[in-house]
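F.,

This is the one I mentioned.
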């Protein structure tokens, strides 16, 4: 495991917004994290957080329409940074509240924040970006 900048090339994955694509994306990220993060527990936390971001993008941003989602993972200045970007639109808040009435939902962002040292969510008309960061060492 390197965990140092320059030793681990960035991982760039573009995949269609479809649930069946998620296991392959997680597998590629898992392999990349094994070479980028010294602590296996931290690597697992990042994998879980990024998996949640990708799932949210498929479910909420695109609702499975197969539009492209981009995941980029890189090490910068001793920090792992994973971004998940889509061009979809979030479900309106009222619709989310209604969908939660019959099942527990809505803990993904809190989970991402708990598993990383920094989580940033940027929602624009052009799409959503989730940035997840944690030390590589």
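My design for it:
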């Amino acid at each position: 495991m390197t965990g140092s900048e320059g030793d681990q090339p960035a991982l760039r994955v573009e995949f269609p917004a479809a649930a069946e694509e998620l296991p392959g994306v997680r597998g590629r990220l898992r392999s990349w994290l094994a070479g980028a993060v010294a602590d296996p527990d931290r690597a697992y936390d990042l994998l879980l957080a990024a998996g949640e971001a990708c799932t949210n993008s498929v479910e909420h941003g695109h609702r499975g329409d197969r539009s492209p989602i981009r995941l980029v993972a890189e090490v910068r200045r001793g920090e792992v940074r994973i971004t998940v970007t889509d061009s979809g639109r979030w479900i309106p808040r009222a619709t989310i509240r209604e969908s939660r009435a019959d099942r527990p939902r809505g803990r993904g962002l809190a989970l991402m924040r708990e598993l990383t040292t920094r989580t940033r969510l940027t929602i624009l008309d052009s799409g959503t970006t989730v940035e997840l960061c944690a030390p590589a060492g």
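The chain has one domain: 11-135.

Talk soon.
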